[in-house]
Design brief:
- This protein is α+β, with helices and mostly antiparallel strands and 310 residues long.
- The chain has helices spanning 12-20, 61-75, 124-137, 167-182, 189-200, 244-251, 259-268, 276-294, 299-308; strands at 8-9, 26-32, 39-45, 50-57, 85-91, 107-113, 152-154, 157-159, 213-215, 224-226, 232-234, 240-242.
- It has a six-stranded mixed beta sheet with strand order 1-5-6-4-3-2.
- Strand 2 and strand 3 form a beta hairpin.
- Helix 6 crosses helix 8.
- The termini are far apart.
Length: 310
């Protein structure tokens, strides 16, 4: 089922013609490097517009369909900078003006506004902290439980977002358990038993938030971008409604953000003093996903966290 029919196109050229309501042509295209999952282009059109385009294989259009919904959901909170979605779709690749990047093979694409980077404002991290806290505290009128409107992806792994009335149950059944099952080839029977014990006792470590918070879902530093206004914008989401602590934990997985960010965040949405006792448990989900995507180099960190909570 498509979520935003208005954005869905069957060729790249048709999409940009429809976006600008006239025939346009590409005059410049450059690869942008850095992502593990998708390929990206900066495209300049003959009308002067600049676009950011993400691409993947033809069959992976669901990556962009679900990202569209996540970006739109965050944007509607009116709290934080999020790139505008202009369109997504598929292209058969033959004789397409961008097909030379893809060996004339069919591909899927997502078209976003291009955020021209600027120098960071002096209060860059403070403003980002307050805006993220405001997004986390925004209540949804259309979604009252934990989960999301549909399943989406964390990296290239399917992320299950079945609605659930309990955060603890949701985190057990739709975050940890699917990743543990997927990674079972790495675990002997003793480790499997430890995981069962952890899952059976999850209520001893987590608690239910006051209400479901809208999360970015993949909030590491690489998905925080300085936009043309000198403020932080957030990219590449894997949104769902959960506990705001899970986003904060992810932001610390590969190194802390500046202390000014946390101080400003606390002004709007207080981080509990005992959050540090749960941080690694939230990130167990992310590390398990890295184990499943990238292999056994993440195994020791998974086991370290598992033993920490047992």
């Amino acid at each position: 089922m498509l979520f935003y029919y208005v954005y869905m196109f069957n060729s790249f050229q048709d999409s940009i013609n429809e976006i600008f309501k006239t025939d346009v042509a590409i005059v410049q295209k450059n690869r942008i490097h850095g992502g593990d999952i998708n390929r990206a282009l900066k495209i300049v059109l003959d009308n002067g517009a600049t676009l950011f385009v993400k691409t993947n294989s033809f069959e992976n259009v669901a990556f962009f369909e679900t990202e569209t919904k996540s970006l739109e959901t965050m944007s509607k909170t009116n709290t934080i900078g999020v790139p505008k979605v202009l369109g997504f779709g598929t292209d058969k690749g033959m004789q397409n003006i961008v097909s030379d990047f893809f060996d004339n093979k069919p591909f899927s694409f997502l078209i976003l506004e291009y955020l021209e980077p600027a120098n960071k404002n002096n209060d860059y991290w403070e403003v980002f902290g307050r805006e993220l806290a405001q997004m986390h505290k925004t209540r949804s009128e259309n979604f009252k439980t934990f989960g999301f409107f549909h399943d989406n992806f964390i990296g290239y792994t399917k992320q299950i977002n079945t609605p659930c009335n309990s955060w603890i149950n949701f985190f057990r059944d739709y975050r940890l358990l699917p990743q543990i099952k997927k990674a079972s080839i790495y675990f002997d029977s003793a480790i499997q038993k430890k995981f069962i014990k952890l899952l059976d006792n999850l209520e001893n470590f987590l608690f239910e938030p006051q209400f479901p918070n809208l999360l970015h879902g993949d909030l590491w530093s690489g998905n925080i971008h300085c936009g043309p206004d000198g403020k932080a914008w957030i990219l590449d989401p894997a949104c769902y409604y959960g506990h705001s602590e899970a986003d904060i934990a992810m932001a610390q997985l590969f190194g802390n953000l500046p202390s000014t960010f946390y101080a400003a965040y606390n002004e709007i949405n207080n981080i509990s003093a005992d959050y540090k006792d749960r941080k690694d448990l939230y990130n167990l989900y992310q590390i398990l996903n890295h184990l499943n995507m990238f292999g056994k180099s993440y195994y020791s960190e998974v086991i370290f966290i598992l033993n920490k909570y047992l």
